[in-house]
Amino acid sequence: MALIGVAASILLLLIFIRIMFVFLSTGKPVRNLCSSKPVSTLIILGSGGHTAEMMNLLCVLEIDKFSPRSYIAAATDNMSLQKAKVFEQSLAHGASAGNTSRTAKFMQIYRSREVGQSYVTSVGTTLVAMVHALWLILKIRPTVVLCNGPGTCVPLCVAAFLVKVVGIRWSFIFYVESIARVKKLSLSGLMLYKLHLADQFFVQWPKLQKAYPRAQYVGCLM
């Protein structure tokens, strides 16, 4: 029994050290993405203007570098994936996109909480969403995760962090706060900021950067 206790203590210590290593490594300058080699990218979409902002953001990126691309939206969001498909179709007609847009995938995830849903019943749906998010992350294994505030991004980013801790895949999480957030972060942004889950956290207003000093002010991206 004593040996089992010692082994358990050592295992817990190793897990703790690994978690601390991931926490300390998160947020440091990302050098692994500087090569010209394309990187597998997960793009998280959301209703209420989030998808429109994400599409605008993708338009200013060197899109060929972020390939293959996987888009994820909530299961009850019928518009976001359609907008992503239109975006990919526009790339397919452009010379710069080559054939990379053909590799795009479109997926849906359970919502943690629907609008108006009670907090009691949302406990169960949050657990379901977390398990589903972990399955999706293990399936996609993205090198880069792009998100800009929909609630759907929280379980996916937590799942990506857990996969980092286990050592299956090191996913770099890039969070861009919505341009609508001038003085305060959204709930999703606040959670990712407080939990140190994002490798790079961008805001579009100087007041936000002053309130949250670990964020990077990049000006208006839209």
Description of the molecule:
The protein has 222 residues and is an alpha/beta fold. The chain has a single domain (39-217), classed as Glycogen Phosphorylase B (Rossmann fold), CATH 3.40.50.2000. Helices cover 44% and strands 14% of the residues. It contains 7 helices and 7 strands. A 7-stranded parallel beta sheet has the order 3-2-1-4-5-6-7, sandwiched between helices. Helix 5 (153-166) links the parallel strand 4 (144-147) and strand 5 (172-176). Residues 96-101 have low confidence and may be disordered.
SS element count, helices? 7
Name of the CATH first level: Alpha Beta
**Named CATH architecture:** 3-Layer(aba) Sandwich
Instruction: Output mean pLDDT.
Output: 85
- Taking all Cα atoms into account, the compactness measure Rg is 18 Å
Helix content: 40-55%
**Count of spatially separate domains:** 1
- Biggest sheet: strands side by side, in what order? 3-2-1-4-5-6-7
Poorly predicted spans: 96-101
Structure, briefly:
By secondary structure, this protein is an alpha/beta fold. It has one domain: 3-Layer(aba) Sandwich (Rossmann fold), CATH 3.40.50. The protein is built from 7 helices and 7 strands, in the order αβαβαβαβαβαβαβ.
